[in-house]
Amino acid sequence: MLCWLTTWVTLRDITLRTAEQTPGAVLNPAERLRLLRALVEIGVTSFQVTMGLQRHPAEQLREEIKLIKSLNPEAEIEIGGVTVKESIDRMADLGANCTSIQGPANFAISAFYVGDTARMAWEGKDWRKMAKPPKSLEELVERNKPLINYAKKRGVKIKASLNMLHYATEENTERFAREMANAGADYVSLHDGPGGMGPQAIAYAVTIAKKATPKTKIAVHLHNTFGLGVAVNVAAVQAGAELLELAVNGYCCAASQADLAQVAAALEIFYGVDTGIRLDQFTALRRLGEDITRIPVARNNPITGDTYFIWNGFDGMAMELLVDPLIHWCVDGSVFGNKRGWVIDQTSGPWAMLEKLMELGIPVEKSEVEAILKGVQAELLIRKRTLTHDEIRSVAMRVKGTA
Hints:
The chain is built from 16 helices and ten strands. By secondary structure, the protein is of the alpha/beta class.
């Protein structure tokens, strides 16, 4: 049985990187700053602003890091993906205070984790000799150790990442964690980018890493491939992970990252884990993400969707409100800056109609309610959608006028 090892977890927002990987999303520098400001203001304290130094002009990254530090001088700011000392120098000079060293669990694909091999190959260079990808865990460990030492001298935290976790053996996971921790890594990070592992498998991997290095923080980077984004992150925390990498609205390519709001809500409300983030700002953050990316989330997106706390208006709902308003809701949408409600639809009865009329401040006699309900439901068939409050009011006035 899994047990809690912590009552606090850090949620690292990686939206600035993953939003630009989202099909159809293009963020200009001003929009990136706007999103960053909102994230800091709701309590996010850890960020990854980009992966590698080639994607954005140095001055743009410098401005973003400067903004974060002006709002929270203690924030952790990662530029990920370094494989040489020069990259550590460059990112440290920009003001970042954390970086990641990538390494594969399968060394047949290790070339993708040793710098810009794609560019070398495109230019016709012999990337095998230039990049010298590690061919074994032993070679990976020996490559990472001097980079970790150098980063420490520059005052930069190191996250040693084991990528493509679904390829990893128990032995390699245990040894990677132990060796990286012994070398001085601040985090040992387990990455399941394809999302090929379920909650139990993720928990097992975290348990192995945590047992190998109990004093080093375990981080995870997990995706939502099977709709289990929240579940795998919760399982990771239950097994001892202390840093989760998440994104606003789950923005990313493919099946997306886990949604920052959904994971935070589950941890805080179900399990009592403190994230330090203002839950009541999540719906506004969702709308900001949509405004910036031009990519809407589903109307019933968990926690922040416009209709997520909207129920259909059957009679039992109206009567439940008299007993306990949380019978069907379990949590009030206002906790997340959202709004609870219910609508009149084809399943509604006279009690629901009366309650809605009272909510709208429309005085009626009991004898008028069923006629108004029939009028509203007839209008639903015509409009093929839920009626607005003004449209319900119009139907009610018309029915009352002819009664």
